[in-house]
Amino acid sequence: MNKRMLQMLAAVLVFVAIIAFVKFQQIKAAMAGGSYTPPPEPVTAVVAKAQPWGDAFEAVGAVAPVQGVTLAADLPGVVERITFESGATVKKGQALVYLDSRQEVARLNSAEAALELAKNNLDRSKSLLEQQLIAQSDYDQTAALYRQAEAAVREVRAAIERKVIRAPFSGTAGIRQVNLGQYVGSGDPIVPIQSLDPVYVNFSVPQQQVGALRVGMAVSVAADSGVKVQATGRVTAVNPVADDATRNVRVQATFANPKHKLRAGMYVSVRVDMGSRQSVVAVPATSINYAPYGNSVFIIEEMKGPDGKPYKGVRQQFVKLGTARGDLIAVHSGIEPGQVVVSSGVFKLRSGAAVKVDSTVTLPASASPRPEDS
């Protein structure tokens, strides 16, 4: 039994020794100059071409009304009458809500009676003064009492007017927040009103691009609010102060909005046409290898391997990117027209890697893509 086990152990040792010798010869051959060449990576590629490229800036903006406010009660009181419906179009000066003003009306009657008495006293004092039957000081005191009575009447009338909530401008009323018989305190909200034609679109621009902005530049916006909304307006204001935290500058554009498709608070995609056009090299966005230390592309070139044989490989090239448009992105430096650039599969490449261009697959790239279901 022990003899048989020794024979089996010897056989195993011989087998291991043979395997070790074979691997040693392979490693020795590799160190002597032979190397394993991995198969080329399949990629797609495009030829870099120069094309006209309008300088534009894209951002996300928010719609704001030119005039918008939430009406509030000026004085406390009980809602006596409501003369509008939620969502209705209202005119400037239109009375929307009446608060109970019976107490003020009673004060007005009293003040008007006091004014009438003061007027009679003033007339009598004037007649007596003309006859030199009273002193000038007595007449002046009577005249002062008359003016106080006039002021008291105007004060009560102003209080009654403040019990009527009116639209400060023409616009669209929102959802009312009061009901008949409800007590409202001073400052309690009544209804929001927004003027939606025209509207503002506010967005931010990095400080590096503010110098190219001018009031009057064309701005286009697009929003997906169930129905595609597109509109064109103009830059009307550029904030003179940059934000301390982001170093962005606030910009405001104005848009005509006759059909009220742009609603206050909506987010929209903003595109500002800077006006200048230049020739740049544009490549598909899928060609860019983004990295913290710099963005790069892979250029396909003829290379020579360690054995001197030529092969098709890639060279990593760092690039300076410009603005994106649709599927394309502008490259300001790093690529020359005519160079072949990898358009897909960059994530699996390294400089010097062998590639095989798959010409049967073509990735569409356009500055103005139109999805099939758009």
**Alpha-beta classification:** alpha+beta
CATH architecture tag of the largest domain: Beta Barrel
Please, what is the average pLDDT? 80
Query: Which CATH class of the largest domain is shown?
Result: Mainly Beta
Percent range of helical residues: 10-25%
Computed CA radius of gyration, to the nearest angstrom: 41 Å
Summarize this structure briefly.
The chain is an alpha+beta fold and 374 residues long. The protein is built from 3 helices and 19 strands. The protein folds into 4 domains: 93 residues, conserved putative lor/sdh protein from methanococcus maripaludis s2 fold; 91 residues, Efflux pump adaptor protein, beta barrel domain (Elongation Factor Tu (Ef-tu), domain 3, Beta Barrel), CATH 2.40.30.170; 43 residues, no CATH class; 62 residues, Helix Hairpins.
Structure report:
- With 374 residues, the protein is α+β, with helices and mostly antiparallel strands.
- The chain folds into four domains: 41-53 and 278-357, conserved putative lor/sdh protein from methanococcus maripaludis s2 fold; 58-66 and 195-276, Beta Barrel (Elongation Factor Tu (Ef-tu), domain 3); 81-99 and 164-187, no CATH class; 101-162, Helix hairpin bin (Helix Hairpins, Orthogonal Bundle).
- Helices cover 23% and strands 42% of the residues.
- The chain has three helices and 19 strands.
- Strands 2-9-12-11-10-13 form a six-stranded antiparallel β-barrel.
- The longest helix is centred in the N-terminal third of the chain and has 30 residues, at 2-31.
- The radius of gyration is 41 Å and the shape is elongated.
